[in-house]
């Protein structure tokens, strides 16, 4: 079996406020997203969300079911989002082949029994970042490129948060049950993401940071708006954001991150915005 997984239980803000740095990281940080010739997964009890990665190097990697799902196959009752952040690769879904280049996405609907990941060149392997959520309906599998994404420009260089939001697997682009994924690219000279911050009590979120230059880092902020905490993160690491928590970050350089979320609804703008001056 090429799948490694761990479960993370959901905790509330009162419990999180009492955590030291090591415990905060153990509960929310996903340090290892990619491992050679393995599928790495974290099963979160926040909205039963799964985040992880598949990195085929010397062999194809099938997406096998894991015990917490109690399912005959991984997508028996789930949907899956895939974004390639490595070299060129391909994914087969019940035998149908999809080529995925750098920063290209694939939505795979409920009911597909066999998903296999491949790299085109072992010297520059593909890195498939994966997010999955429970699904009640089967929607078609579909590839989405950056050119097909809904694109939004936000922020400014003056406030160090000039960024491009690429909405890839969202309801304005494709049909999904509850999973939504996109990618935010910060411009040179900008370091802040998701600022002003917000919460959304109706869904949770996971951030995956990449294109963080060697020797640089991102400080990810979480917690209730009046009781924030931070987690230092490095390239190709992810962090779980509970519904009660803000999710924002500032890097020592510009970077890119993938956001994925699931919960009550598909309204991207369903946010409880928090003024910068009110953060503590």
From TrEMBL:
Pathway: Glycan metabolism; pectin degradation; 2-dehydro-3-deoxy-D-gluconate from pectin: step 4/5. InterPro entries: KduI (IPR007045), KduI/IolB_isomerase (IPR021120), KduI_N (IPR027449), RmlC-like_jellyroll (IPR014710), RmlC_Cupin_sf (IPR011051). It is an enzyme of class 5 (isomerase). It comes from Parapedobacter luteus. Keywords: Isomerase, Metal-binding, Zinc. Signal peptide: none annotated. Its cofactor is Zn(2+). Pfam families: KduI (PF04962). It catalyses: 5-dehydro-4-deoxy-D-glucuronate = 3-deoxy-D-glycero-2,5-hexodiulosonate. SUPFAM superfamilies: RmlC-like cupins. Zn(2+) binds at residues 198, 200, 205, 247. Belongs to the KduI family. The keyword Isomerase applies. Its EC number is 5.3.1.17. CDD domains: cupin_KduI_C, cupin_KduI_N. One of its GO terms (molecular function) is 4-deoxy-L-threo-5-hexosulose-uronate ketol-isomerase activity. This is 4-deoxy-L-threo-5-hexosulose-uronate ketol-isomerase. PANTHER family: 4-DEOXY-L-THREO-5-HEXOSULOSE-URONATE KETOL-ISOMERASE. The keyword Cytoplasm does not apply. Catalyzes the isomerization of 5-dehydro-4-deoxy-D-glucuronate to 3-deoxy-D-glycero-2,5-hexodiulosonate. GO terms for biological process: D-galacturonate catabolic process; D-glucuronate catabolic process; pectin catabolic process. Binds 1 zinc ion per subunit. The gene is kduI.
């Amino acid at each position: 079996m090429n799948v490694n997984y761990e479960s993370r239980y959901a905790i509330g803000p009162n419990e999180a406020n009492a955590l030291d740095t090591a415990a905060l990281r153990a509960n929310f940080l996903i340090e290892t997203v990619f491992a050679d010739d393995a599928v790495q997964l974290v099963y979160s009890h926040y909205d039963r969300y799964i985040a992880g990665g598949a990195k085929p190097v010397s062999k194809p990697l099938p997406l096998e079911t894991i015990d917490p799902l109690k399912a005959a196959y991984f997508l028996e009752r789930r949907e899956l989002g895939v974004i390639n952040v490595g070299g060129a690769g391909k994914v087969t879904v019940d035998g149908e082949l999809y080529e995925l280049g750098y920063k290209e996405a694939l939505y795979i609907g409920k009911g597909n029994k066999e998903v296999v990941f491949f790299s085109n060149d072992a010297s520059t392997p593909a890195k498939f970042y994966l997010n999955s959520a429970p699904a009640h309906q089967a929607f078609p599998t579909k590839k989405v490129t950056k050119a097909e994404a809904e694109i939004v420009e936000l922020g400014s260089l003056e406030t160090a948060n000039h960024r491009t939001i690429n909405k890839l697997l969202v309801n304005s682009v494709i049909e999904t049950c509850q999973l939504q994924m996109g990618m935010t690219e910060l411009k040179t000279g900008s370091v802040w993401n998701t600022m002003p911050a917000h919460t959304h009590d109706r869904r949770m979120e996971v951030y995956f940071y990449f294109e963080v230059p060697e020797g640089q880092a991102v400080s990810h902020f979480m917690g209730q708006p009046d009781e924030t905490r931070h987690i230092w993160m490095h390239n190709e690491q992810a962090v779980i954001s509970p519904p009660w928590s803000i999710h924002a970050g500032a890097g020592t350089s510009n970077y890119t991150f993938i956001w994925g979320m699931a919960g009550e609804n598909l309204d991207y703008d369903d946010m409880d915005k928090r003024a910068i001056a009110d953060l503590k």
